[in-house]
Design goal:
This protein has 6 helices and 5 strands, in the order E-H-E-H-E-H-E-H-E-H-H. It has 152 residues and is of the alpha/beta class. A 5-stranded parallel β-sheet has the order 2-1-3-5-4, sandwiched between helices. Strand 1 (2-7), helix 1 and strand 2 form a beta-alpha-beta unit. Helix 4 (90-100) runs parallel beside helix 5. It is globular and about 45 Å long. It starts with a strand and ends with a helix. The model has no long low-confidence stretch (mean pLDDT 96).
């Protein structure tokens, strides 16, 4: 599985550590930055290219970090075809994929520790979309909003 990863300064250290762990676990990892710790950088500069690559099918899943994970989630979800969520628990890490076809997990490096983040990422990557009729129906409604730009 090809994985994309991105972070601003707030998630930089965790991103670096997570990328190394993913490579050690046998994943192909594309790093969208930041490539250095810069306290003045902005999460959209790294998360948006990651999200675009996920939406285009260039990578299968994405992992985005910032201090809280909130900004990364907001930015990623601005890209059509992305289903990103801020995750803090194991259930949501797999259920988000199984029911909602989540393709980017967002994590707050100041909210979850590295061990918990690694467990959440492993759970996210191991999960598969159920394809159940009700889940497909719901995703079709979300896709229609993205295409039309208006609510149901």
């Amino acid at each position: 599985m090809r994985i994309g990863i991105a972070a601003d300064h707030g998630g930089f250290t965790m991103k670096e550590r997570m990328a190394a762990a993913l490579v050690s676990a046998g994943y192909e990892v594309k790093d969208f930055g930041a490539t250095e710790l810069d306290p003045d950088d902005d999460y959209p500069d790294f998360v948006i290219p990651l999200a675009k690559a996920v939406a285009a099918g260039q990578i299968e899943r994405g992992i985005a970090f910032c201090s809280s994970g909130v900004g990364a989630s907001i930015a990623a979800n601005k890209v059509s075809g992305v289903r990103a969520a801020l995750i803090h628990d194991d259930y949501s890490a797999h259920q988000g994929v199984e029911h909602d076809d989540m393709n980017i997990i967002c994590l707050g490096s100041l909210v979850v520790g590295y061990a918990q983040a690694w467990e959440l990422v492993r759970t996210f990557l191991a999960a598969t979309f159920s394809g159940a009729v009700r889940h497909c129906r719901r995703l079709a409604k979300v896709a229609a909003i993205e295409r039309k730009g208006d609510p149901l």
